[in-house]
Amino acid sequence: MPVRRVTVVGEEVLRVPCREVTEFGTPELSALIDDMFLTMYVADGAGLAANQVGVGLRLFVYDCPDDHGVRHTGHLINPVLDRVDPADRRLVEEFEGCLSVPGATMTVPRVDRTVARGFDKDGNPLVIEGQGYFARCLQHETDHLAGRIYLDRLSGRDRKEALRQMEARIEGVLALRAEKAARPGTPR
């Protein structure tokens, strides 16, 4: 399983809506998912979309806790977020980062509950309900697959601040990722 290079804001693949996965159960799809998990762990992420490793497919992986400390790990192919009744959710502004905007974190509004529907690598249907931080992760990764990044949800001023943070920290972040990738054994 190779660690793949994580794309960075400004690369076109992050802005193009991803294609639906049409072939399930293939060794190539399984290998991509395995590579994405390894890459996410090396980069210290909670989620990673396929276009973040340069592959334009509607797929993401995650290893993310919710607000109660329950760890959720898996992958979702061709995800669609259900509309959640406004009475059953609230908008929460919390800090959010992105592996493709290395070193930057900004406050981003997201709903605190979401339901994602899609498929596993074998084509079996999945329904995943997320609350709190895990709901944020599901929304963030689904945005990626539509060609959006969290910077798109910020004001112009906050977007400039996030890019300034990235510029100041990117070398250090990428050096740490390279160091971690070079270590033998499990990255997390």
What percent strand? 25-35%
Largest sheet, if any? 5 strands, antiparallel
**Average of per-residue pLDDT values:** 94
State Rg: 16 Å
User: What string gives the helices and strands in order?
Assistant: HEEEEEEEHH
| Number of H- or I-type helical stretches | 3
| Total number of distinct structural domains | 1
Strand order of the largest sheet: 1-2-3-6-7
Strand runs, count: 7
The CATH class label is Alpha Beta
The name CATH uses for the topology is Peptide Deformylase
Portion of residues in helices? 25-40%
- What distance separates the N and C termini? 15 Å
Structural class: alpha+beta
Uncertain runs are none
What's the CATH H-level superfamily name? Peptide deformylase
CATH architecture: Alpha-Beta Complex
Q: Which of globular, elongated, flat, extended, rod-shaped describes the shape?
A: globular
Structure description:
With 188 residues, the chain is of the alpha+beta class. It has a single domain, classed as Peptide Deformylase. It is 30% helix and 26% strand. Strands 1-2-3-6-7 form a five-stranded antiparallel beta sheet, sandwiched between helices. A two-stranded antiparallel ribbon has the order 4-5. A hairpin with a 5-residue loop joins strand 2 and strand 3. It is globular. The model has no long low-confidence stretch (mean pLDDT 94).
Summarize this entry quickly:
30% of the residues lie in helices and 26% in strands. It has 188 residues and is an alpha+beta fold.
